[in-house]
Specification:
single chain, 195 residues, alpha/beta, five-stranded mixed beta sheet, 5 strands
């Protein structure tokens, strides 16, 4: 449900007396659906597991991928360089399950399916929130950073984002561990193992 992809675009601007502008991440969200078939809980779960490889493996039933673009501009004076402008763009692609014949499911199974699909959608939205918080935390540190030279500042900023990525990955993993235990108790999952 993760893997941070990103690239840095750096523009140098020499100037004096400029302060770092607060960057607010711009966000784009795209949702894609993958097909789920099955007329009973076990067949539905098996169909989703058949798609897990497409979602990155490990029994995933949903996935959110993020592409991050970072752009910064520097202000340099004699013996000092700091961030003048810093922008962050986050592009999310969320992959969610969609049953091909939901209306044909019996009422109880349809209710369980819809509840499960909503839980997966909620889960993926939480991953976006984690990324946004990580981006905001990193942006505060970037906007406060300075160095003697702009090349030193670039190294500092890359370190800030590397550490942010590591901390963010840890938050995603902790969230997934807690949520996997809850999701395994969902009525659709429980019904899929009853025979």
């Amino acid at each position: 449900m993760k893997r941070i992809l990103g690239y840095f675009a750096v523009a140098l601007a020499l100037g004096a007396g400029l302060t770092a502008a607060q960057a607010k991440p711009t966000v784009k969200v795209q949702t894609e659906h993958y097909r789920v078939d099955g007329a009973d809980a076990a067949a539905i779960v098996n169909s989703m597991m058949g798609n897990a490889r497409l979602l990155g493996g490990h029994g995933r039933v949903g996935r959110t991928k993020m592409m991050r673009k970072i752009d910064w501009e520097f202000a340099s004076t004699s013996g000092s360089c700091r961030v003048k402008r810093h922008t962050v763009e986050l592009d999310f692609v969320t992959q969610l399950p969609r049953h091909a014949a939901e209306q044909r499911l019996n009422a109880a199974l349809r209710k369980d399916w819809r509840g499960f699909a909503q839980r997966v959608k909620w889960h993926e939205a939480q991953h976006r929130k984690i990324w946004l918080q990580c981006a905001r935390d990193a942006e505060r540190k970037v906007n406060a950073a300075s160095a003697r030279t702009c090349s030193e500042l670039v190294k500092k900023l890359e370190t800030i984002y590397d550490r942010s990525n590591a901390a963010c990955d840890k938050r995603h993993a902790e969230f997934d561990r807690a949520e996997t235990a809850k999701l395994s108790k969902h009525p659709l999952i429980r019904a899929s193992v009853r025979r």
